[in-house]
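Technical appendix A lists one of the benchmark inputs used to test multi-chain prediction within the project. The record comprises two sequence entries:
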Amino acid sequence: MPKPTKGPRLGGGPAHERLLLANLAAALFTHKSIKTTETKAKRLRPIAERLITFAKRGDIHARRRVLGVIGDKTVVHELFTQIAPLVAEREGGYTRITKLGFRKGDNASMVQMELVLEPVTAKAKRSTTSKNTTPTAAAAAPAEADTETADADVTDTDSTSTESTDTETTGAATAETPAAPAADDAPGAPADVDPTTDSDTTSADVDSTPEADTTK
Amino acid sequence: MAVPKRKMSRASTRMRRAQWKATPPTLVKTVENGKTTYSLPHRAKVVEDSTGDPMYMEYKGRKVADV
């Protein structure tokens, strides 16, 4: 249950806020990623995730309740048939808000709000069973270690260190991977663009599946 | 319309003005390719190509938005 918002409504009043957030939710489901202000995104998050929960339920009653918020039937159909199967395994947290910067003019904090359509990763398995933790973590660590060693080689050529220290630096880099997984290195960027394209292809694959599978 | 009755003293004017203070922003230091850059925490950064033109915005090694 979303927490009731305190303070003034967005827009001119309660009705204006309802319409505004419904339109924002429709835009989010249409484009999968929207740029908006931080305040609007934080108000939209519980509403959008609630609508996705209805979509995962998938029956006609849930569809009519979503249609009470979003009037556009094409958007609701896309939500129920395309977005809901992609987040079927995900237990909440269907949206991601990334802060971008401040808008010129009113200095409002702008964010990119997107649907989390990637497949659920190993972090969820860690909470369920402890046995699966070590293989998945071990499988994830070499993948990160490869990228880190590649980065370490680049830095080694710059620093002109000896070969004996190269092994030490790579070992240190692998040890640092859990501590600093999100280095803003340029080599990491193109490698991470690929999963998004993969998710797009998976979404295209899911489109071909009939709706009867999604209702289960 | 309400208007001030007395001239505001120099002391009270200065006391009012002294209350406005600028606070330094909290920045994070990152060393990238030997260059030290300061940036706001938890915000996407603009990625530039070799000529300095902005390409896209990334956060935690992931492309999040176009510029």
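Chain B touches chain A through 18 residues (CB under 8 Å). The longest strand of chain B covers residues 54-59. Comparable benchmark entries are summarised in Table A2.
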